[in-house]
Amino acid sequence: MMPQLSDRRHVALLRNIFLPYSEAFIHEEIRHHVRYDVTVLARQHINPDLFPVQSVVSIEQLPDRRRRLASLWYSITTRSGHFDRALSKGSFDLIHAHFGHNGVYASGFAVRHRLPLVVSLHGRDVTVLIGRDKYSPAWWYYSLRYRRMFEQASAFLAASTELRDLIIDLGCPSSKVFVQRLGVDLESFSPPSSEVLPEPGLVVMVGRFVEKKGHEYGIRAAAMAHEAGLPLRLVIVGDGPLERKYRQLIDSLGLTDSVEIPGPLPHTEVRSLLQRAAVMLAPSVVARNLDRESGLIVAKEACACGVPVIGTRHGGIPDIIDDGETGYLVDERDHHTLGERLVSLLGDDSLRQQMGAAARVKMEREYDIHERVAALEDIYDAVVDDAL
Predict the structure, then answer these.
(1) 11 vs 89: CA distance, rounded Å
(2) Residue 214 backbone zone (phi > 0: left; psi -120 to 50: alpha; other: beta)
């Protein structure tokens, strides 16, 4: 379905899988555009009920006989006649690819249709290029083509200062790289109304059960709060390959009755959980394969709900948390200090409320999604005008 022509400019947003639960931030950006219409180009379109978009061109929309061959052809060659036809008919002004490996797919379309290309970088798409995983078959095409993408794209949007520095070290021209932090919908994520009763002992962690999330250290910190006799209900939202390991750790620490693992939750349910929470933990670490966070959107959402966050000095997390003012920062893998900070917050209602209020003010000042999307549209304008 193609959008109606309008006076607004038109961006083709390429994301090969649109859209996993963990990438709700992409949908939030789309929802808050003011001066640009968006058409999504996707190989696979998932969760359409959770992330509705007016215009999606998906290879999976093709009839059965063509779908499998078209999808295979796209994965091997990065070419799609389906996408080419949409781009030819849509009066587009630019292409925006989320994640560097999707930027490699987008490069050919940008060249063929003479459109400027913007690529957003979110973490793994950068760190894979500095570790051994770049030699894995899953990443070989990206590893071979990323330097050409550096030449062809007009701008790269790094979700943190660390990612900006890493991509420049890899050879991307510094003049093309901008730090573009993701914003939060402050109307949707806000302190609870008087009808919502906070739960003093509710501690939340959110994210895939993979090494970089550091959930293991959050579980050990929760054990310290439990041993201190404080009320505790730890809810870990997500799933992934380390779930069995986490459940074994929870049992060994005597936390079976105090920890819940509900699996992945819709964005609305995560919001409801955060609004009732006392504290959020964000104990992220640099994984052995060098994977790491950039800007942790759920930490921003917790802050917007007036919930103090205890995070690590890692990636973009220090940009989100002002240590000792809106929450706490600890060193990676230091579960002992993480536990001490958790005990101090769970045991002091006044401190928790003071930090939560300051966290909300910081989000209003620095991460309002309306302002962040306006900044994104300014970048769009600049690359479009330069290409004219």
Answers:
(1) 13
(2) left
Please tell me the CATH code under which domain 9-183+368-387 is placed: 3.40.50.2000
What is the C-alpha to C-alpha distance for residues 63 and 170, in angstroms, rounded to an integer? 41
309/317 Cα distance (integer angstroms) = 10
Residues 72-101 pLDDT 10s: 999 999 999 999 999 999 899 999 999 999
Q: Which residue has the tokens 């962040």?
A: 372
Residue type, 297: I
Q: Which of 244-253, 290-299, 305-314 has the lowest mean pLDDT?
A: 290-299
Cross-strand pairs, 327: 309, 323
Cα four-point dihedral sign 193, 197, 203, 207: negative
Distance in angstroms (rounded) separating the CA atoms of residues 329 and 319: 11
* Rounded average pLDDT over 249-254: 98
Beta bridge partners of 119: 97, 156
The pLDDT tens digits of the residues spanning 265-284 come to: 988 899 999 999 999 999 99
Residues of the chain with CATH 3.40.50.2000: 9-183+368-387, 202-366
Whole-model pTM: value is: 0.90
pLDDT at res. 388 = 84
On whether the 202-366 domain is CATH 3.20.20.450, my answer is no
